[in-house]
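Supplementary Methods S3. Complex input for the NDP-bound model.
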Amino acid sequence: MATTAATLAVRNPRTGSADHTITLATAEEVAAKAAVLRENQRGWEAMGVGGRCAVMARWLGAVKAQAMAIGEADAVDTGGCHTSYVQGFITMGNIGGWLEDAPKAFAALEWQSMSTSMPTVEVESQVVAYPLVGVISPWNAPLMLALLDAVPALFAGSAVLLKPSEVTPRVIEALFETVRQVPELAAVFDYVTGAGDIGQAVIGQADTICFTGSVPTGRKVAVACAERLIPCNLELGGKDPCIVTESADLDRAATAVLRGAVYATGQVCYSVERVYVHASVHDEFVALLVDKAEKVRLNADNPRAGLIGPFTFAPQADIVMRHIADAKAKGATVLTGGEVEELGGGLYLRPTVLTGVNHEMEIMQDETFGPCIPVMAYGDVEEAIRLANDTHFGLTASVIAGTAEEAKAIGKRINAGGIFLNDTFLTFAKMRTFGSDSFGWSGYGSPRIGPESIRRFLRRKSLLTQTGPVADIQDDHHLGPKTGAPK
Ligand code: NDP
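Predicted complex, serialized as structure tokens:
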């Protein structure tokens, strides 16, 4: 008997109405797609990195031709701010970067020499890809966060099965129009649509997992991967602090903090989520911040004009309002913003500055993921560092001081993977340059950016050739000269 596929209506964050429908996959369909990808991966890996680069260069051309349409789809999915419209171009940068970096990464992994511990043995490396990589991605920056993992995995020689968030499916559909134009790529790169059960089904099929999302879901993913004994790389939330010292240029600090906290409606994992300002400059800093915050326009009339878009995922507005209400109930003051407005069906929050906050409040402990800036005064640098490190998270942090040296000295003592000095929001600066680890609940596994991030998809084998005589059983030189084996 034929069964009807289940569908899901998808909300448009700008209008509030469901204007898109997706067909939900079943676990059987996930298994069938995984089997096809796994079969095709053998030929993909056999092409070598040079062959794959030639295919990926053709994909880059297809993305270039569709870059505007991809950006439009991202803007509809997320509610739109100017970051959305450039997503096609960011994708081109991602693919183009790996066209240069992947061959170098493979060359760096090649190894052939005589062993230093057993001089008659030749050691040679062989690099093999995990056959099937599962990528599970969130609703914020839905294209970029899917492709940060999928693109290097494909260059590595893996096949990729992507499970995007059901909240933001349109941009993935636009992306796959470009994938289908390159048949060799379409054979090894596919996606499945659905919610958490389909994420779990992907984990059930893959050889390694890359997950970006919240801490609670990340835990479930880690447990499911542990049960299958497959590796997982988790990129989770943040509660990123910014310290402003007494010697800082306060106008510069207020500009940087505002951008870092409210860009993309604060729905960025490395948004500034809490600010610590020296008590002697607290009031002056807050006045500058409020003044700048009140000049930021919503983009409700025109997504291309104005900087604050609607919440992408309506329930996120409830979480943000819960944090604000909890802070107010415990004594905080909202100086500007603080109320969600419904405009044309979308849910908006203007930049919201709070003072009188402390670490008993949710807004200083849990990820808010909205355009909120709680500001707290500190007495000395030791207290500022203690407060910055008083968190389960450790994704990024910022320090704004009078000199780079002063900022660096403080930054070196903060437990986070990316430390931005005399600015905020500098993550893109390390994209192709240097990968860093996340601390605490913010991440698990190996770095996802930087040239070595491709290693997450590669296993290295050693081929060991004996070129000398074979040891007799009573000789111990087969254990190597430095083993200290008793005579
Ligand atoms: P979620 O954790 O809710 O979801 C992430 C993905 O996991 C979605 O595709 C979701 O599907 C899927 N999923 C849900 N349940 C399960 C499950 N049991 N097993 C497997 N997969 C599952 O995160 P959000 O989408 O709400 O994204 C926002 C979060 O992402 C924030 O906490 C943010 O900080 C974090 N993030 C981290 C970044 C980083 O690099 N550290 C970058 C950007 C965001 P569906 O949505 O369809 O239910």
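Residues 136-140, 145, 163, 165-167, 195-196, 199-200, 212-214, 217, 220-221, 235-238, 269, 367, 369, 395, 442 surround NDP (CB under 6 Å). The chain has two domains: 7-236+439-463, 240-430.
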